[in-house]
């Protein structure tokens, strides 16, 4: 998608990886605040973290999709 828009694909891959990691960490911290950190809550915590990480991916994708195509 970045190539079609005339942008450097490596930069957007980097943005996606960094966004995934940051949103996963934020999801983990938020999940610990919501669910607590207990052995019984690990599945909910991990699930919430992965959902937040996927949200970070969707954010980068949304930003890239809204850029104009190269003419």
Descriptive report:
The longest helix has 27 residues. The protein starts with 8 loop residues before the first helix and ends in a 6-residue tail after the last helix. The mean pLDDT is 91. The chain has a domain of 46 residues. It is 72% helix and 0% strand. The protein is rod-shaped, with a radius of gyration of 16 Å. The protein contains two helices and no strands. It is mainly alpha-helical.
Question: Which key features would you list for this structure?
Answer:
0% strand; 71 residues; mainly alpha
* Rg, Cα atoms, Å: 16 Å
Secondary-structure-based class equals mainly alpha
Number of strands: 0
Kindly state the percentage of residues in helix: over 70%
> What is the H/E string?
HH
What overall form do the CA principal axes indicate? rod-shaped
Please write out the topology.
Layout: H1 9-35, H2 42-65
Helix pairs in contact: 1-2
Short description:
The chain is mostly helical and 71 residues long. The chain is 72% helix and 0% strand. It has a domain at 19-64.
